[in-house]
Amino acid sequence: MKAVVFIFLLAAQQLHAQQLIASLPVKKSALSSNAGMISGDSLFLAYRATISSPTETVWISPSGRVTRHRLAGLEGKSLLAAVPYEDSTFYYYVESSRKSFVVKALTEHRVNFESKVYANETDIPGTLVGSFIDSKQQLNLLCVDRESFYLRLIVIARLDVKGTKSFALTSKALNTRIMKSFIPQQSVTTTYQALAPIKIMQYDHGVYLMIDNENDKNTGNTKTTVTKIDFTSGETETKALFDLPYRNNHTAILDEQIYRLNADGMLRVQSFNSGDVVFEKSLRDIFKTDSLFVRRDKVYTRKEVADRWRGCNFLIVDKNEMGTVNVTLGMHTESSFIVAPAGVPLAAMLSAFAASLVIDQLAEKPGKVFYKTISISTDGIFAVDRAKHSIRQRIDEFESATRTNYQYRGYCMKSNLAYCIYQEKGSDQLKVHKFDTKNSIQ
């Protein structure tokens, strides 16, 4: 019997391509906060067991080696990014004022592990709307100035400003309190990020700015604008897509193709360059396929979900390791989509932006989620098919198969690697599972 159980567990682990790599001691109560980022293939975590607990900071290697760091001075700070250099690691954090934000850093020597607040600081006017680490290990900040039509890129290394660029925009939507999300390249878009009417998505040489559901003053119709901003050349290009008045649309982009979930119940794919519609399919037909439809941990039958398409309010498009295009669409009900008013603490304001910090809160945002994932072939025939395995699906299948009652779940994901942090109900251990695509079974 033991052999049978062992074989079953091994098979389940291989099927979901996951591995338990670390367990961290915590209080039995649910975590107060847990933020993190993937650097290289390692995981950085900054977590607190309770509100009054000190912040614990750890690095976890892909093999599960845990290195604890005592970084006094980070308590209560909004961590922005952790960037290792040759001699030390910079832990960037932000502090706020009404019209600007200040970037500071705590440095940790990589030999003797001494930490101290770095002498320099950088005061940046405007509002932070996105950040990422580039190939040169430089911190890139995207911000907008109040009352302007410009998006600014600011490049920082060791708190020295290495360069700035400004890009003209056709809309002031980034200056409004409408929910926004920044989606870094190679990351996995969450359902909460996909809800945002304004999305900034990073690609190789810049970002796409997607603004859904604006009112066109000339025609009164609903308008979606997609702006491609090239950081290298400085060029911008904007495409406008129109719909009938008071229609809500949801947009994503992948490989120069614009994916739109229209209020008329159609999924359409259009070329960014030509505007031609290359694929369209009724959501009613899509939801009648055999693909799984998931509501958190429960899998519904095809009959139970036949009419769920009417409530779809988000769209996610990505690729799995085989190059197959996966489209995830569904409904996320959330109590509040509006950014906090001006003057609130920066940490609260950034949390409403879904993901402006490189180091972001990993816990699921509140609300109920219904969704399903399908695959669309790209061989020129564009047909809906059963979804091929992606990181997101492997995590869903693992959680559904284990049937564990979690009091905390956090996710830090890239397209080919994910770290999932779980605390079972009543447990004093925070378990870290690694999911990857290198050892997956197709």
TrEMBL record:
<keyword id="KW-0732">Signal</keyword>
<feature type="signal peptide">
    <location>
        <begin position="1"/>
        <end position="17"/>
    </location>
</feature>
<protein>
    <submittedName>
        <fullName>Uncharacterized protein</fullName>
    </submittedName>
</protein>
